[in-house]
Amino acid sequence: MSAPHEWIEEVSRDQLQAVNAGIARWVRKTGTEDERKAFDFIASTLEGYGLAITLHEPTCLVSNPVSARLQAGGQDFHCITTSFSTSTPETGVAGQLVYAGGGSPSELGAAEAAGKIALTEGLASPQKARAATQAGVRALICISGEHLHEMTVSPVWGSPTPETLDMLPQVPVISVDSATGEQLKALIDGAEARVRVTTIVDTRWRKIPVLLADLDVEGRDYVMFSGHVDSWHYGAMDNGSANATMIEVARILANHRDELRRGVRFAFWSGHSQARYAGSTWFADAYWFDLRDRCVAHVNVDSTGGKGATDLTTANTMAETYGFARDVIRRQTGQELIYQRFGRAGDQSFWGIGLPAIFMSVSHQGEASDVTADLVRLTGGTAARSGGLGWWWHTTEDTLDKIDPELHDRDTRIYVEVVGRLATDAVLPYDLTGPIHEMLTELEALEGVWGAAGELSADDAPGFEALRAELQAARDAAAALNVRIVDGVDDGDAEEINAALLSAARYLMPVNYTAAGEFDHDPALGARTLPSLHPGKALAAMNDDELWASLHKVRRSANGVRYHVRLARRALEAVSG
Description:
The chain has helices spanning 4-7, 13-23, 33-48, 105-110, 126-135, 178-190, 236-255, 278-286, 288-294, 319-333, 370-379, 405-424, 433-450, 464-487, 491-513, 544-573; strands spanning 52-56, 59-72, 75-77, 80-81, 93-99, 117-121, 139-143, 173-176, 194-207, 210-215, 222-228, 263-269, 295-300, 357-358.
């Protein structure tokens, strides 16, 4: 029998480029006829490799931008609108133009932007749209950089529920490039400037495709390998190249299906770009029990093989999966993956279920840019250590000439080994000491945050000491299990250990990554470690009612975290030897 690190030699550059070209011939807006053609092409290709095809068509809220117009100083300026911007009346909305920096609530307040049109720096984002809505801004203009980048400004993850409908933006949003931004600033400096903004956005409930292509999943545990098909414009990199990577991995694994311990489910989403991850969110909800019971990992792929994407040190992983991903990248490329916790982006719709996750985009440009820093703020990531996905990302220029065949081959090889090993390793390559250490470190920082409440009695304290002790005991159990795994286990023990690893991950991940818990979805407004233990705002800004109410809430949240950690500890202790 061969091994996944040998299967990587079967990657075909010709196949990758042919499939990429086959997908990137259509503009694949969510829920459109051309997007469906791409799904049909993918399904037909995978069916030819012997995978079982299932197509779902859930009804989700989709927002496709149609057109935008900006008039100021007697002239028209080139602009685009965003997904989930509101549409204006036919005559648009007019008002005084004011400059509001980065578009934060404080900057909008300082600019006295209520009832006016606010000009702001940086990409259009849910945070800025939300702040503009709350500030009563008439329209929001975002200076997106040298190029116009298409964006989505809804903070609602997936389709809204009655509880989140009122979080949808209630403001027209447009983007302009840097040159236009400077012209608009000059208008403000010269005199009181009035501008008119007109937007048309097609926002409505519509059916969208979700495609599953299963390789021997029936009756078995399985790995889920996912990526979105919908695109901005032709999307040759985002996400045509990634779809080609998925299909090539499927072709190679199908050739080795008799060597797989677990099945592999290839999941192709719609609703990533113009519906805020509605496809993957629907799937998480509809398949919750199947995913919880049988899925051992979620591997995601986005934008492989971009020209100049030489940096493999900044891919997202979870602490559970970091060591495994680092070892694969190091062995194949010699680069050293630096741990970067997932931001709130990229079809990461499965944290509440507790699926250990690896990757969104695996390769990035070599130097940081203003857009990169914007994306870090947008998704709640850690640091802008790379140059992101290329200047053409989310623009009309995302075409086939932006793909480097050699780098596309390299990225695909990484995914072949990662997915192949998850489907073949006797013991799943997870280290549970990682997330527990992450939680302990965050707990120490949170003690400082809540210390702003002053010295509290034992009766009023949030219970962090008991939580710390529970986390330390769980860390000891995870470390002991790691030693047992290194010492070697037979197949019978491996099954028992895998069950314990997955149980512990299912308990830890929802409290480490979510405030909403197992069955709901947090907004697309960034992600923090142990989010339920953070106060809603600075304690110094709270009145007495807010402070004491927050202390009672964090006590309850700490109990919930401690309970989940205790269940994880017990699962690990049962097999740690």
